Amino acid sequence: MARTLPDTDGVELPRTLMLHGLRPLARFLIRRRFGVRVHNADLVPATGPVIVASNHVGVVDGPLLAIFGPRPVHALTKVEMFEGRLGGFLRGAGQIPLNRFAADPSAMKACLAVLRDGRAAGVFPEGTRGPGDFRRFHAGAAYLGLVSGAPIVPVSMIGTREPGAGSNALPPRGSTVDIVYGEPYRFEQTPWPRTREQVRHSALLLREHMIARLDEALALTGRQLPGPLPVGQQNIDDDPHTGVVEQGA
Fold first, then answer.
1. Which of 64, 102, 145, 157 could link 187 by a cystine bridge, Cβ 3.0 to 4.6 Å?
2. End-to-end distance of the chain based on CA atoms, in angstroms?
3. What pTM does this model have?
């Protein structure tokens, strides 16, 4: 695969020292506040490039994906999070800044460099926190799958936000979060040029697969998603109005 990926020469790979080194301590500290159950982790390939695509319900989804996954994940993270001291930590932990409001080739190239190096790249196709039901679905994960041919493993985050809780709310102390991995989805690697319509169609196929895996995860855990954010917070992250939606499926 490395010979057929687009050129990523000169792209600096995200760091790994903190991403690997802090995981055991972070797991211990998080489990002092709430429980975390990981299901079907064996569905994540143990080696080689992989794209991990998760729904986005609460503020802790990204950290949990990186800390509790069977493999450390370099996740696309909105560039606004990289301001101040938090930005230094996120870069040290190997996360990748993403401008959600414009084409961001540097972020895509960083993900492709991660995949070329045989690592795990993380994507939240919904683009922002919300109901977690893939009502809106951006095409980044499908694009990376088409370009690289790497398997895309769906992840369902359940319990990271309580019903009625705000966008920045943490899971209540003593509660339980379920992280459920689903059957991987794979596109045949597609060389350039890839048309916008081709990427959009692929995103719709991936969305259908991830909705089905989410339904399985809810049945497995016997739980429900938290529903929409409270009135007045539903646009708190100013999600760009792009991506495929239910009407286009």
1. 145
2. 30
3. 0.89
